[in-house]
Structure formats: C-alpha cells, structure tokens
Amino acid sequence: MTAFLGTRESLRPSADKLFVDIAEYVLAREPGSAEARTTAFHCLLDTLGCGILALNYPACRSVLGPLVPGADFAGGARVPGTAFKLDPVTAAFNIGAMIRWLDFNDTWLAAEWGHPSDNLGGILAVADYLDRQEEEPALAVGDVLTAMIQAHEIQGVLALNHAFNRVGLDHVLLVRIATTAVVTRMLGGTREQITDAVSNAWIDGGALRTYRHAPNTGSRKSWAAGDATSRGVRLALMTLRGEMGYPSALSAQTWGFQDVLFDGTAIELERPLGSYVMENILFKLSFPAEFHAQTAVEAAMTLHPEVSDRLDAIAEIEIETQEAGVRIIDKSGPLANPADRDHCIQYMVAVPLIFGRLTADDYEEDIAQDPRIDALREKMIVRENRQFSADYLDPDKRAIGNAITIRFEDGTSTDRVAVDYPIGHQRRRAEGIPVLREKFERNLRSYYGGDQTDTILAACS
Predict the structure, then answer these.
(1) Shortest CA distance to 130 belongs to which of 79, 57, 83, 77?
(2) Phi and psi torsions of 208, nearest 5°
(3) Among residues 7, 15, 3, 5, which one has the least CA distance to residue 256?
(4) Potential cystine with 101: which of 54, 118, 135, 459 (Cβ 3.0-4.6 Å)?
(5) CB crowding 200-236: b at 16 or more within 10 Å, else e
(6) Closest CA to 387 of 366, 401, 404
(7) What is the pLDDT of residue 5?
(8) What integer pLDDT is reported at residue 260 of this predicted model?
(9) Single pTM value for the model
C-alpha cells in the first residue's frame, strides 16, 4: 500500500529564486567587461569556424536541413555555410549541431563541464530570424556578443557547484536553460515570461549521459547540444504565445527537479551573474579533443620527436591526469567510432606520439586501423594526480593539468613532461589569440574558395 502523503497546499508559490535571478540578469543587458566582450568576439569567430569545418564531414551534413524535406521558407533563419532558410527552432538545431560536431569549440570545466558556445545555435538563429522580419536591422553584432556573455555566464556559473554528471545527467541541460533565458529576452519577453520559460526548461529534466560513455558512445553527443539549444528556442516562442510557467519547478517537494533528478540537493548560484565565465573561457585551439586531455596531447606532441623512432621499444606510458579525466576519458578495449575515440585519453595521446599531430581526420577509420595506436594504448597506465585535481577546481587557477612519462624496455625513460594550462587558457590568452585567428582562417579555407574566405576575413577584421 502506498503511504499517505497528506494533502498538498494548492496555493501557487512565488517563483523559485534561481528563475528570478536569471530573469533579472538577462533583462539588465549589462555589456560585460571589456575583456569579456573582446573574448566573446573571438569566441564568435572560433565557434563559426568550428561549424564551417564540420560541414566537410558527411555525418554532420546528414543531420542538417529541415526535418521534413522541403520545409524551409524564405523568411527563415539562415544556416551558415548552407543554403538552408529554416524556422528558428530547426535552424538552432542545425547551427548547434555544426558547432559541436567535431568537439572543437570552447569549453568550461568545473563540477560540471560543457561548451557554452553551444548556445550560439539558438542565439544566432533567433538573431537572424528577427533581422529578416524587419526592414531595418533589428540587432547588431554587439547584441549577439551581449547574449553570448549572458548565456556563457548562466551555463558556466550553474556548472561551478553542480555535478549533474554524477547523477547520470548530461551537461547539455545547462545549454537548454541558458538558451531559454537569453532567447526569451531577445524575443522581447518580460521578467515574468522569462521566469516562466526557464521553469519549463527545468521541467524538461535532462538527457542521460548514455551516449557519451562506453559501451554506448555514439554520434548523439555531436548533436545533443543542437537539440538542447533548439529546445530553448521552442520554449521561448511558446512562452511568448502565452504558455504558462511552473514557479516551483525546481523546489517543489517530490515533483520538482531537485527531488526527482538531483537527490534533493538545492540548485543555487555559487556567485552573482556577471561576465566571469566569458573572461575565463577555455578555447580549443590546437586539437579537436575532449578538453580534459588537451594538455596531455600537448605533452605527447612535445615527446613525439624523442619517441617516434622508438615506438617498439616502449615498455610503459604513464599518464597523470585530473579525477574528472580518469572518470570520463580513461578507456580500454575496442573503440567503436570517432565519437568513442575523441573521448579516449589513450587514443588522443597515442596519435600525436606516432604522427606528431591530432586532427579531426585522425578519429576516422583509416587512421584508427593503424595497429600502432592500440599497441601503444595497451602500454598506457592512467592515474589521478591529486594536485592536478585540486588545481582543476581552484577558482584562481582553473588548471587542466596532465603529465606523461615514457619508459623503455632498456630501463631508460623520457623526462616527465607536464602541462598545467593549455594554450586556450585565460593565462595563455595573449599567446592563444593569434593561434585562434589562424585556426579560424584554416577552418574557413577548408570549405570555402579563396575569394570567399578573403571576403569573410575582411568582414571579421
């Protein structure tokens, strides 16, 4: 027999504080610091470049376009690099899928991790859609940068102290929350409408991380963020048509998100919302690899000249990483597809040791079949370095350390090569921006002709 829970108070409560805090933050439209705006501009370039590069891959192109063939329309939002003009919900999915496909856009690491530029799927789709409904431009690029700073901040601050991954939920739920809030404001939503829309975004719950982990790793992880950002656009549009909200969607006893999906833990902001996340965002500049392995790949590249001619003589490869890296990307056994390989630290170390590079093509079958990769993987030991874990969570450091030591059968070994901060880190920003610009140009030239690339670069200068 089910226990009697007693009657419930039917009086509707005030909106959860988090919903109100988010609504008031996005309505303030504060431009953010000068550093945040400069970083947002470079983030916009980098994110668009990642999406354009992804168009070279048939698997990415296969998920683009209208869901039903022929369902595009003249006044729709455009999908960069294609001829598609789509309703803003579908356009957001398309742009979001392009951005995330190669795991090469920016990253945020905390108790939860994720890729805040995934929100550009919804932001760009809605911005272009709004502009195409008016005779005069409705928005400037500066408005897009403000929306980016806000979306980055909402997603990133919520990630600081909430590990959704530990209860099996995927980080893209934060993309849905951030996109919903920012896009509802972009569409003209009031404080009440933004809180209503955000409440519905929490009611959606969260996707399972199943598709990110063995034995089920698969291509959904490449379009999951597109799905999340497009859902944010849908909820915003529905709210502006009068759809109601649910004020205690987080905190309601038994039925709220916290009780149902987060072990009853309160979801609260660790710090006030501003522009902290954009100022400290991590760019993937050199390698399309899961970010916890970026410095491991950099260390492997350093060791390549020393070991590439002695691969058969290697006895052991020791990889020291953070706790999150052990939990997410330490994989043994067969790797089923590119999505599996770009989330395996052993694979991401083996390729640069052998070839002196790591590109998106290196996750494809023709490279993965090289027997030397699995031979090296079998010699690898991955362990947590507790100092790396501590520095990873230190808000004044935000390090992503990895170290590699290679030992040979004759008893000799390489030096221990440790890298604490990848080139895309805020501490290496001056070094990284020229590399970001080169990456942007390289990605454009991979898809467009020379004259068109030159025109785009001039517009972005």
Answers:
(1) 77
(2) -70, 150
(3) 15
(4) 54
(5) bbbbbebbebebbbeeebebebbbbbbbbbbbbbbbb
(6) 401
(7) 52
(8) 97
(9) 0.86
Count the helix, strand and coil residues of the chain and give each as a percent rounded to the nearest 5: 55, 10, 40
**Cα angle, residue 192 at apex, residues 189 and 194 outer, rounded to 5°:** 50
pLDDT per position as a tens digit, 86-145: 999 999 999 999 999 998 899 998 889 899 999 999 999 999 999 998 877 789 999 999
Supply 64's token pair.
């683009």
Q: Are 424 and 319 in contact (CB under 8 A)?
A: no
Contact 354, 376 (CB under 8 A): yes
Residue 9 has pLDDT above 80, yes or no: no
Phi, psi of 417 (to 5 degrees): -100, 115
Question: pLDDT-based confidence at 286, cuts 50/70/90?
Answer: confident
For the chain, give the number of residues. 461
CA distances, 85 to each of 66, 78, 91, 387 (Å): 9, 5, 8, 50
* Residue-by-residue DSSP string for 415-437: PPEEESS-TTSGGGHHHHHHHHH
| Whole-Å CA distances, 374 to 58, 341, 350, 353, 401 | 26, 11, 8, 12, 24
Is there a contact between 50 and 104 (Cβ–Cβ < 8 Å)? yes
Residue 211, phi-psi category: left (phi > 0), alpha (psi -120 to 50), beta (remainder): alpha
Q: Strand ranges (DSSP E) for 70-146?
A: 77-78, 85-86, 108-109, 113-114
82/97 Cα distance (integer angstroms)? 13
* pLDDT value at residue 2: 45
Which contiguous run of DSSP H or E holds residue 314?
A: strand 314-321
Positive or negative torsion for Cα 269, 273, 279, 283: positive
Phi, psi of 174 (to 5 degrees): -75, -25
Omega before 215 within 30 of 0, i.e. cis: yes
Strands (E), 379-422: 380-384, 402-408, 417-419
Vertex 114, ends 33 and 131: CA angle to 5°?
60
User: CA angle, corner 236, sides to 138 and 124, nearest 5?
Assistant: 45
